Every structure is written in structure tokens, then in C-alpha cells.
């Protein structure tokens, strides 16, 4: 057994330490791609998971100090690329990858982060239409949260001045990119909400790459917008750039210039609108007046009101006419025209026929005035 | 005064309501005249409100005490 005694005999700890040394010295900076599985985020903040492909599995740990800068949350099934060093967990003799950086494969980390935050806030209801506030029609004071040196504030002022020269704009200067940007933007929105007389807020910046616009994809900004009592217009980058702020805001403007256009219709539009209503007001009143005055003149020309005497005269005439006809019927009127009535003296009978009389009968003839008493000589 | 407190959009809304009522023509002459007078007042108020705001572009700064100051904003385009 000489040969054996000449060989070095390791303890488990010794060999594990050697393996660790060999691994760490030769595989200390490697990129490994695989699918995340068995992901656990421990309460210590460390992440434990495995990377696997079709044939093999590799244990991984990403310590808190490394994972706190992760923009997205790794999930089982996600394809990722990890950078780190191989090491051995001596207590178990497992080898593992200590992950320093992790990137989603295919899409960028920011894109993943964007989708994750969007989904989270959507589920919380931050994008719900019922939370959207109406913009004031004619805001007196407009608060703007953006960089004092950026293109956004220039564009906003230009458009507002052109459309409505006499508006009051208050700029809250903030950084719009970099690590402090999100905090400053959120603070500015909160601060504006402590003022009484700001009617609407424009929050935004000019265009840039996704990283430049990132502050507007941060949760702290989204929540500040959501909590704002004052209606917020989000105006970030260009038409094609959608940010989380755009989803939470009461109104999304494709660009800062567009925000300025949305915030107030042009003064000319307002004035012509008012003139229009005023014209309708006058026309409506005029037509009421016309109707009333034509009713009035119809009344004034009515027969009774024009010549009250006429009516009386007409009655008079009618009365005369009727009395005239009555006169015509009266026997005395006939007598006045030369006719006479003859009666027999003996019985007073009116004589209508000569055969009623004989010779020597006494008759009385009544004339218009007076009577004649006569004796019949002969009957014809 | 009450007219001062009226917001532009509320004044416009009220004005439109009055015009609609007058256009309906179901009001008495007295009521029509009252509404018309109010309408004229509101039209003037709206025009006035459009013209009264002062153009001002200010920039806000927060003092160490947490209070705010405003000063005129000098954009590089002006």
C-alpha cells in the first residue's frame, strides 16, 4: 500500500476548498444564458434561483447588493443572461453562480420593467378612466414641471403665447433625466398641489431614448400624478413614446407643444364661440319681441279697439233699421202716406168690401189726421 | 360680487342654457327679458374673462425653509 501512502489524502473540506479555488480563479467572470427556474426572493433580500437549459441546471444566487439595481423582477420561465463568477457553497459542496448582473434576453431590462410596472399599476386601477379629471376650459394658471433649459418649456411657452397671449404659467424646474429626476418630478407635482390657484399641470420633457425618458416610467412619478388633485397632462418625448406617466395622467399629450395646445383652445376660438352664443341670444330675444309685437299690433287693429264708436253707430243703425221696419208695419204710418180706414158707424166694423154697405149707412173714415163722418149714397 | 366668482366655463354653460330657453320661446315676456338681461351680462363677463388674465411666465424656487418664491422666467427665446 506504499503507493497509496505516498498519495495525499484530502479531507472533504480541503478538497472543497481546492475546487472552490480552481473554480473561482478560472471561471471568475462569465456570462451565462439560461431560463430562470425555482426563483425565490428571500426576506434577506437575496435572490436564489436556478438557470437551466435542456440538459443541465445551474444553481445561482444574486445577493441583495447586486439585485437592488435591477430594474425588473426576474421570474421563472424568463430567459436571461447573467454575468458573475462561479463559486462553491462549501457547506453543501454545491457549486453555484454568484450573479452580479442580469439582463433579460431579447428585450431590454427597461422594457421588461416598463411592462411590469404598467401591469402592476393597471391592476391597481391607476389607469382607470373614472379617475381621469376633466381639464378646465380656461385655466388661469398653468403649472409646468420640466427642465428650465429643455426644449419642452420653450415649446410650451411658444404655443401658449401664440394661442392665448395672456396666460399665467409657473415653471417648477426639475431634472428630467438621471437618478434624481423621478424624485424631483414627483416632489414638484406634490408641491404644486399645495397651491390653491393652479388649474392644470403639464408634466413632461422633450424626446430622447428610452433611458432618457425613464423618470416618467418610475412608480413614484406615476403615484404623484395619480394622487394629484390638479388635473395632469403628461407630455413626454414624441408621439411614439408612451410612458407610464401617460397612462396615469388625466390626459396624454403626444408632445409638450401638443400639451400646450390641449390645455387651452385659442383665444380666437373662445371669442368667436362667445360671439356666436351672443348672436343666438340676440336672435332669440328678437324673435320673441317680433312675435309679441305682431300679437300686439293684431290686437291694436282689432275692430273694437280701433273705433269703439263704430260699434255703437252700427247698433244705432241697426236699431234705426229695425224701428223703420216696425213703423212700416204700423197702421198709422200707412195713413200718413194718404191711405185711410173706413168703419161702419153702427158697429165699428172695418169695411174692406163695398158689399158690406147699403144706401144710407153711416160710415166713419179715419185719416192720418182726423175723421170724416159720411152717409152712403150708393154702393158700387 | 357673485359674477366675479363665476368660472368661465360655468358662465358659458349658463349662457348656453339661457339661449336654449329663449329659443324654445315658452317664457313669458317678463321672464324672457330677465333671461335676456342675464344673458347679455354673461356674454360680457365671458369676454372680460378672456381678456383679463395677465401674461406672466414665472419660475418657482423652493427656499430652504420649504417656502416658495417666484421670479420671472427668462426663456432663451425672449
UniProtKB/TrEMBL annotation, chain A:
GO terms of molecular function: exodeoxyribonuclease VII activity; nucleic acid binding
Positions of the OB-fold nucleic acid binding domain: 10-103
Keywords: Cytoplasm, Exonuclease, Hydrolase, Nuclease
GO terms, biological process: DNA catabolic process
Primary enzyme class: hydrolase
TM annotation in the entry: none
EC number annotated for this UniProt entry: 3.1.11.6
Pfam name, any one: Exonuc_VII_L
Gene Ontology terms: cellular component: cytoplasm; exodeoxyribonuclease VII complex
Family matches, as InterPro entries: Exonuc_VII_L, Exonuc_VII_lsu_C, OB-fold_nuc-bd_dom
NCBIfam families per the UniProt record, alphabetical: xseA
Protein name (Swiss-Prot/TrEMBL): Exodeoxyribonuclease 7 large subunit
Species: Candidatus Taenaricola geysiri
TrEMBL record, chain B:
GO MF terms, alphabetically ordered: exodeoxyribonuclease VII activity
UniProt keyword list: Cytoplasm, Exonuclease, Hydrolase, Nuclease
Coiled-coil regions listed in the entry: none
Single Gene Ontology BP annotation: DNA catabolic process
Annotated catalysed reactions: Exonucleolytic cleavage in either 5'- to 3'- or 3'- to 5'-direction to yield nucleoside 5'-phosphates
Its EC number(s): 3.1.11.6
Superkingdom, natural source: Bacteria
Parts of the chain that traverse the membrane: none
Subcellular location, record wording: Cytoplasm
Enzyme class of the recorded protein, top EC level: hydrolase
Pfam families reported in the protein's UniProt record: Exonuc_VII_S
GO CC terms, sorted: cytosol; exodeoxyribonuclease VII complex
Family as reported in the entry's similarity comment: Belongs to the XseB family.
Assembly notes: Heterooligomer composed of large and small subunits.
Role summary: Bidirectionally degrades single-stranded DNA into large acid-insoluble oligonucleotides, which are then degraded further into small acid-soluble oligonucleotides.
HAMAP family with a match to the protein in the record: Exonuc_7_S
Protein name: Exodeoxyribonuclease 7 small subunit
Organism: Candidatus Taenaricola geysiri
Gene that encodes the chain: xseB
Amino acid at each position: 500500500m506504499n503507493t497509496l501512502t505516498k498519495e495525499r489524502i484530502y479531507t472533504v473540506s480541503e478538497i472543497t476548498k481546492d475546487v472552490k479555488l480552481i473554480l473561482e480563479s478560472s471561471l471568475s467572470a462569465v456570462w451565462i444564458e439560461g431560463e430562470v427556474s425555482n426563483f425565490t426572493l428571500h426576506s434577506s433580500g437575496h435572490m436564489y434561483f436556478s438557470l437551466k437549459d435542456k440538459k443541465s441546471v445551474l444553481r445561482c444566487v444574486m445577493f441583495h447588493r447586486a439585485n437592488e439595481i435591477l430594474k425588473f423582477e426576474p421570474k421563472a420561465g424568463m430567459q436571461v443572461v447573467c454575468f458573475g463568477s462561479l463559486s462553491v457553497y462549501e457547506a453543501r459542496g454545491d457549486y453555484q453562480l454568484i450573479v452580479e448582473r442580469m439582463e433579460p434576453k431579447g428585450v431590454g431590462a427597461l422594457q421588461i420593467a416598463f411592462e411590469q410596472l404598467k401591469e402592476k399599476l393597471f391592476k391597481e386601477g391607476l389607469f382607470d378612466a373614472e379617475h381621469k379629471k376633466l381639464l378646465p376650459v380656461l385655466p388661469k394658471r398653468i403649472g409646468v414641471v420640466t427642465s428650465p433649459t429643455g426644449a419642452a418649456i420653450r415649446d410650451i411657452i411658444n404655443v401658449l403665447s401664440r394661442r392665448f397671449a395672456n396666460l399665467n404659467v409657473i415653471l417648477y424646474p426639475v431634472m428630467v433625466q438621471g437618478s434624481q429626476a423621478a424624485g424631483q418630478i414627483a416632489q414638484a407635482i406634490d408641491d404644486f398641489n399645495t397651491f390653491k390657484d393652479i388649474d392644470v399641470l403639464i408634466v413632461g420633457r422633450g424626446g430622447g431614448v428610452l433611458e432618457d425618458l425613464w423618470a416618467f416610467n418610475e412608480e413614484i412619478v406615476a403615484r404623484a400624478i395619480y394622487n394629484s388633485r390638479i388635473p395632469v397632462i403628461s407630455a413626454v418625448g414624441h408621439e411614439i413614446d408612451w410612458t407610464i406617466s401617460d397612462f396615469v395622467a388625466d390626459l396624454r399629450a403626444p408632445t409638450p407643444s401638443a400639451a400646450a395646445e390641449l390645455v387651452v383652445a385659442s383665444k380666437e376660438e373662445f371669442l368667436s364661440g362667445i360671439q356666436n352664443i351672443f348672436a343666438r341670444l340676440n336672435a332669440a330675444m328678437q324673435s320673441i319681441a317680433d312675435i309679441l309685437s305682431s300679437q300686439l299690433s293684431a290686437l291694436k287693429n282689432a275692430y273694437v279697439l280701433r273705433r269703439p264708436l263704430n260699434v255703437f253707430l252700427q247698433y244705432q243703425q241697426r236699431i234705426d233699421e229695425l224701428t223703420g221696419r216696425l213703423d212700416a208695419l204700423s197702421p198709422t204710418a200707412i195713413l200718413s202716406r194718404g191711405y185711410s180706414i173706413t168703419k161702419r158707424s153702427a158697429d165699428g166694423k172695418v169695411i174692406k168690401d163695398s158689399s158690406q154697405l147699403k144706401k144710407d149707412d153711416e160710415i166713419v173714415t179715419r185719416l192720418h189726421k182726423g175723421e170724416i163722418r159720411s152717409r152712403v149714397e150708393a154702393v158700387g | 360680487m357673485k359674477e366675479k366668482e363665476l368660472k368661465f366655463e360655468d358662465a358659458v354653460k349658463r349662457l348656453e342654457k339661457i339661449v336654449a330657453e329663449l329659443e324654445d320661446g315658452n317664457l313669458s315676456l317678463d321672464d324672457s327679458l330677465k333671461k335676456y338681461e342675464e344673458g347679455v351680462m354673461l356674454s360680457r363677463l365671458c369676454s372680460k374673462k378672456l381678456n383679463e388674465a395677465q401674461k406672466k411666465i414665472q419660475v418657482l424656487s423652493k427656499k430652504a425653509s420649504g417656502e416658495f418664491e417666484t421670479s420671472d422666467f427668462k426663456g432663451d427665446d425672449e
